[in-house]
Structure formats: C-alpha cells, structure tokens
Write a structure and sequence with these properties.
There is one protein chain. This protein is an alpha+beta fold. The chain is built from seven helices and eight strands, in the order ααβαββαββββαβαα. The protein has two domains: 30 residues; 164 residues, no CATH class. It is 35% helix and 31% strand.
Length: 197
C-alpha cells in the first residue's frame, strides 16, 4: 500500500473515531441544574414568593428546558426572578441584552454590580417612553459572573468532560415586578436567598 492509501485509511479511522465519540457524548446524559433551581427558597422570615407562568414569548423562546420564574416580595420590594438551565439546550441561555434589544428595547446603560461570589450586570433599557431595568448573572452555584463568553466556555468544558468540570451554570435575571425601581444595592447585599444560591 502506498503512502496516500495509508493516509486515507488513517483519515477514515480518525473520522470514525470522531463520529463514535460524538455519539457517545450525546448519548450520556449530563446532570442538569433543575434541583438547584428548585432549591431557591420560596419563603423566609422576611420574604415570600409565588411561582409565575412564562409569558407566551418566553414559552416559545425557552422550549422544554428547566426554569424557575417567581415573584418575590421582600421588605416592600416586588421583583421577578427568572432562572434558566441550558443543560439540554444551551442555545436558550445567552446574553439578556440581546433578547431585550431583539424585542425592540434600546440599551441605555450597563454597569457591573458586585454580588456574593462575583458580579452581575445591571442594564437599563427604554422603549416607547417606557423604561426597564434588569440585573443578570450566570452561576454554577459557586461563582457568579455576567460574561456570556465565560458561560459558553464553562458549558463547553462541562460537555467535553461529561460533567466532570463542574455544575451547569444557570442564567439568573432579576427585574422589578412593578414600575417601581428596586434598591439594587440593598437587594444584592441583603436578600440572602439569591446571595447564597
């Protein structure tokens, strides 16, 4: 057999190995973060909550993934928490700024906000003389950050290592439930369920 025939054979062997590994990776289920989502407390000494249904747009965008959406009432503030686990479809978890701009909102400002274990991103948007704020971050239960690129890297490494690289990071988005602004500094420093979650 000449050199070209041997190279061709090794190329086919390599291609077969890649296909085999791809099938193995996709057939081994990764543990998801559904348990962590449900571990977020519903009630406490100074707060209570209730689960909220997804809006039709959220239902369409998220599809069949693990999520949590709740209204919290804490020290006179009302806010919604949406947490999304992208273990089984990481394409639904991306930069929230992208979603809001796609829905016609115009980005006014962004600024990092320190939170326990890292930082979040506070964003402000306007649309048709209305304004909106959202605080978001990604968390694997230990670290918190607002980088979509870092999220992508964490999930990719987790898939390559079949989950050995750590917990699945989830996207957490907090928004005022009413038009009343939230005291973000107080919320991030003192609302312990999110700080310890």
């Amino acid at each position: 057999m000449n050199g070209n025939g041997m190279q061709s054979r090794w190329l086919w062997v390599g291609l077969g190995a890649v296909v085999f590994l791809a099938v193995v990776w996709t057939s081994i289920p990764l543990p998801d973060a559904a348990g962590r989502l449900q571990a977020l407390p519903k009630r406490g000494v100074d707060f209570l909550s209730r689960d909220l249904p997804l809006s039709p747009g959220e239902t369409k965008a998220l599809g069949p993934v693990a999520y949590l959406k709740r209204l919290y009432v804490w020290r006179g503030q009302r806010f919604a928490v949406l947490a999304v686990d992208g273990t089984h479809n990481r394409h639904v978890v991306h930069d929230p700024q992208y979603c809001l701009q796609g829905a016609g909102w115009h980005l006014v400002s962004t600024r990092p906000v320190p939170i326990v274990g890292g930082h979040a991103m506070l964003t402000r948007f306007t649309r048709n003389n209305r304004s909106a704020e959202a605080l978001y971050w990604y968390t694997d239960g230990e670290t918190r950050h607002a980088s979509p690129l870092r999220y992508w890297w964490q999930t990719t490494l987790r898939r390559i290592t079949l989950g050995a690289a750590g917990n699945e990071p989830v996207l957490v988005v907090v928004q005022p439930f009413d038009n009343d602004p939230l005291d973000w500094q107080r919320l991030t420093a003192e609302f312990s369920p999110l700080a310890n979650w």
